Structure formats: C-alpha cells, structure tokens
Amino acid sequence: MIVWSRREFLSAGTAGAAGLAMENKSRVLRAPEKPWNQGTGRVMRKFRDPIPTACAGCASQCPLVAYRDGERVVQVAPNAGASTGGKTCARAFQSLESLYDPERVLRPLRRVGRRGEGKWEPVSWEDALDRLAGALVETPDTAYVDAGRPDPLAGALLDRLGVGRRLEHETSRRWAAREAQRAVYGLPLARPDLRRVNTVLLVGARPLDGGPEFTGVARDLVRARAAGAQVIAVGSFEGATGSLADQWLPSRPGTDSLVLLGLARVLLSQGWYDAEGFRRAVASPPEAILQRLLPYTADLVEAASGIPALQLVQVAQRFAERGPSLCLVDGAGSEQAEALEAAAAVLNCLAGDPEAAGVRLERAPAWVPRFEPQMPRARAVKDILAGNERASLYLAYRANPVYWSPRSDSVRRAFADEGRVELLVALDTHLTETAELADLVLPAAADLELWNLLGGYAPEGKAAAFLQQPATRSPSEPELLRAPEVPLEQLFQGPAPRPLGEARQLGDVLLGVIARALPSGHPIREDFPFPDCGSFVRHLADTTPSLAADGGFERLAREGTWTSRAATYPRAADGGFPTGSGRVEVEGRLAHRVPREFKRLEGDRFALVVLSHPELGHGYANTRWGREIRFRNPVYLHADTARELGLAAGDRVVIRTEVGEAVGRAAPIHGIHPQAVAVAEDFGHWAGGVAATARGEPTGEVPRPLLVSRKDFLANPLGATRGGVAGADVPWWHRHGPGFSVQTLSPFTSDAHGAQAWREVSVTVQRA
C-alpha cells in the first residue's frame, strides 16, 4: 500500500492538471460555451406538485398541467384527462419561458424624456392607476383598449365604464371572415366538427400551418384523415396542409372564390344535392342560386385559376358522393370574404343540414365571460395615423399595435405623437415596440399567472369549461408566516397564487381604477364587489347551476376542465339560424371580383402570401424555444419562377410594395403557385428582448426594476439579483438577424368593414 503525504498529493494533482493542459490547451484556456438552455428543466417530473390550468395562446384554449418544484414552475404538459384529447402546441411551452424571462417587466415604469427615448423611472401602482382613471372615467368615449389575451372581467367593466372602442388582436386579424360568416350564418363560425366527415375540401384554408385554433383543428383533421376521410386542398401555397391532403390543386392567387362558385355551379346544375333539405336550410331557392352561378363555368374557372375543368368536375363529384362532406375556407384579410363564405355555405348545405356536415356556430353559454371587440385594429390605427381621431388613452394589454399594423414605420411615428395619442399605456410582460413609446409601462401577468374561466361547446354539443389559474406560488412560505394580515386558514392552505413582482392582469387593473375613481356605493362598485379576478372566477363557477352541481370551482381547481352531462348546444335545425330569415343567407353575395392588385400578376409582380408559424405566438416575441426553430424568414417562390429570374437558393432578393421594401433570401420550392411569393409574419422585431431582435451582444442595460429580485433570506440566502443580460443569453442564431417584418411592406388596404385586407397585396421581387 502506497502512503502519500498531503504535499505529495497536491504536487501530483498539479502535475496531472498541467499534463491535461498540455494535451488540450484550448480546453483549459477557454471553457466551452454553455448552451442557452442549460439548466432549464425539460424532463417531465409528474410527481412535482401538478396544478391544472389552460393555455390562452389561441382560441383552442388547450387544458394544461403545470408542474412545480417548490415555488418554481418547472414544466408544462397537456392535461391528459381533458376531453380535448390531451394535446397542445409549442405556444404552451412559451408560457413557461415567458414566466421567468430575465427581460420581463416586473415593476410599473414611467417615461422620462421624449417618447421612444428609452428612459424610465419606477412609479407606484397608485400613481399609475390615478393616470388611468383620468382617461377611463373622464373621457371613456375617446379611450381605446386593445386586448391580446382574454380576461374574465375586462369586457363587463369596460362596458359599464362606457369604453366602446374595444379591440382584440386575433379578432382584428379575422374581422373580414367573422363579419362574412355573421352575414351568412348569423354568427361567426367556431371550430368545425370533423368526427364524421368523409370529405374535407379546403379552399385557401391551411389549418396545419397555423390559424386561430391551430391545435384543435389540426388534431381533428389528422384524426379524420387517419379514419379514412379524404382531404382536398386548393390554394396558392401547399405548406403542411397541402402535404397532408390527398390532393393539392394549385390555384392562381385571388381566385379562391371563383373556384368555389364554379364548384357550386357544377353541383347544382348536375342535381347532386338534396333539393328539399337545401330549401329548408338556405333562404334562396336552388334555382335562383343556379341562375346567378351560370357565368361561372368550368372552362372559365380553368382559364382564370389554372385548375383543369375536368379536375373541377371530379372534385365536385367526389364532394357529392363521399358525404358527409365539409368545405372550409379562410376569408381572413380578404375583400372576397363574403363570396367565399357564401359559396362554401352553398356546398355545406347540399345535404340539407350544414351542422350535420360539421359546421359549428360560435355560440357560448351565458355564463362564459365575453370581451366583444367593437372595431378592427386596422380601422382604429388608420384613423389615428390620418389624424381623424384623437385617443385620450390607448391601453395595449398584451397587444403590440405599433408592430402588428400595416405601415408599421408610419404607425410608430404616429404613436410617438402626443397630439394623436394623449396617454399611451402598455400593460405587458416585456418592453415591446409599443411599450418603448408608452408613457406608462405596467407589468402584466404572464399566461401561467392568469385567472380565467374559458369555455364554450364541445363538438358533440356539450358545454365545456376550462379553468386558467395561476401556477406560481408567491410570496414564499416564510414571507407568508411573517405577514400579520394573512387569515389563519390561509396559513394551512399554503401561499396564495400571485404573479411575480408587481404584475397584474387587466381585470385587476380595472378594479383598481374603479376603486380609486368611483365613490363607495357607486352602482359599478356595487355590481362588481370582487377584490380580484380570482374571486370573480370562483363566483362564476360556484353560481352556474350546471357547473356548481358537479362540484363548481373546487372541481375545476382540481381537474382543470368540466363537461356538462347533456348536450345543450342550440342547433339551428331546431331553432333556426340567427339570421333575419332563420336560414342561411347567400343572396347578393355569390359574385367573384378579382382584387385590383392581382389583375396584372406578370413579370416580377407576384401575389403576397403571408404565413403564420404556430411556434411563434403573437403575445410573446422573445421566445427562444420557438425562434430556434423559426429563426429565418425565407422568401418562398416557385422553382421555375426563380430560374426565370436567375435566382438560386440563398440569393439575396429585395421585395417591394408601394410603401416599403425588405431584403431576404430566396427559397425556391415547387409547392407554390408561380405567381405567388410567400413570407412569414412575426419577424423583424426591433424591440422585445434579445431573442426577438436577435441581438449579437447582450445589452447589459436592462433596468434593475425589470428583473426578479428575491430579498427573502430563506428563499434566497445571498440576496442575489441579476443585473443585466448575460452573454449566455445571446441567441445562437443572432448572426442571421431578426429577419424582415411583412408589416413594413403592407399598405393600408381596407375591406368594406374598414379591416385590413392583407391577403390582397402584390409585391415585386428582384435580385438585391
């Protein structure tokens, strides 16, 4: 046995380390860079204190389970016990990332200096609420509230305060489609029921490539096809949807409504429909509809759209013979939305009952909180930009109108003008493009810190509710035990959920405004005697008879979801459609009009197709988990077109419109019409964080009030506070830059309702 002295042991250890250094100098001289997500727990730890909640990143409202390790949320996953099937998309995981983002705003800030100068100072919530109250209570008729997330109290409180200029992000983008559906069916359409459908015809719709209910519709479509349903896709861009389809028919941009009108003509002229059932469902007789469709022959459709006449007839025959059949269209951002929806309604009523074919109206139980937008964002922003309207207040709640608006450079200058927007307030999680110009930046609760009662009708007609409840636990247990005002029973329940820092959700902010601006005994205060949104959600769950009978709030808090025992969806077959005639109304809407910008698509002019990636949610741009997948914004164009223009993959190209230009990289593909060019949205951010902007260096200038600061000795013995953005936080794709924003290219092109017709923009493409 060899016995070493301490001196001999240390000497040998030093020599060994020196030998390693000589063997590989680089490993000693410079430690390898750690990946940005090292230390982020991605392993599923189901035993770690699960709590059910829900994702509000889109209209699918997927139930989730958040797993916690002490006070920290470490993972989210689909709620496998939910009736929705236990699926979700990448947006749900962004909620976890945004919760602990080091660049998150956690204290109220007040602008110092000029708008956009980037100078801030901390301010108390009391001072911020006083400024808000001055606009919301004294001048509600000129106040705008732009919401990017649902809130249980916001709609009712704003309505009582008299704030009529209410906007909502997703509704604004889909305004044309929703208004067209309201005109045809009486209400906008909800997620379709694809359980029994044998043929799905998608005209311009790409549900697997994004959309307002990406998770739900994509899951149902994949299941339907696996069960034997045939999927036919028609459009100018193939994408994931066209790849899944049994058949993809490339059509000339701007001819979607023409294709549908031609299909309807073939079906009605051949008698491939149930005449009696059609008369019960549609206000106009089939003979009158056919008379209006006579000009739209198969030969005309072939000449205009490029789809052969024989293929058009074959699609019509398949749609008629392989029922139940359902036609889905996407009229969002299109001047032709009414023609699209009316023609699709004709196809969906061929068998008599469109709801039997899978159509679902956007009906909701009376107890579900509603936020009804009163105008599209494009109309409001355009009025402010033109100087037609003055905003005493523009409150952006988890919304970013400066970035998500056409001609965003001009909108940025308009919002910086105090003569146009007197008080600009950003209630958000980050310093977004809008927040950079704001007079007040107020910390908003992240998705995993919200209270909400979400709900509607499941496809089978049963009422369903989803509880969105905070997954965080703050303050810490030692803090809770030291607080003398905490009720005794709460000491046994554990720390009450509370957002990090001083963050609040919109309903709580509005309750604070009412408490400070309205006297005790005021009718609004009497009607809303709730201290916070959580109390209101509990009240709703415990006072709704059907929900209360099944356990009310306690069951929702335990399971996260609830489905009624009986189907109570008000079917149109029983009570009629909510239109003037009680039936589907297509009269005067079956006409195709070629968009002005698309009449001359030749040479270097192309129709612009705007793509949306489900990995990138509009409410949180600083996502690393999403942008490491989508860090480029290529310019997709047909391979033959690229060859004619002398372009190869990766070549720099410049895209121009009448209002701006951008430079990107060419990506020749075959899954696009030769007269179309496709680019994606949610790129080109100039604010919002290092991931959103793809900065090559950490800023190091994030003010200390924006960061998490734990002063509790037992929870944070060293009192550590992060003072800036570290080098490891720089995204690895920063060399590619943030890409370009399609918003800077889009002119204000309004439809009949004043909404943005962003689908009807043409561009030129040339080598840069």
Describe this structure as you would to a colleague.
Helix 10 (256-269) packs across helix 12 and helix 10 (256-269) runs parallel beside helix 15 (337-348). The chain is globular. Helix content is 31%, strand content 16%. A hairpin with an 8-residue loop joins strand 1 and strand 2. It has a seven-stranded mixed sheet with strand order 5-4-14-13-12-6-7. By secondary structure, the protein is of the alpha/beta class.
**Radius of gyration, taken over Cα atoms and rounded to an integer in Å:** 28 Å
Reading side by side through the largest sheet, how are the strands ordered?
A: 5-4-14-13-12-6-7
Mean pLDDT: 86
**Count of helical stretches:** 28
Helix content: 25-40%
* Shape, principal axes of CA atoms: globular
Let me know the largest β-sheet.
Answer: 7 strands, mixed
Helix vs. strand class: alpha/beta
> β content, as a range?
15-25%
The unreliable regions are 9-42, 700-725
Oligomer: single chain
Q: Count the beta strands.
A: 23
Measure the end-to-end span: 76 Å
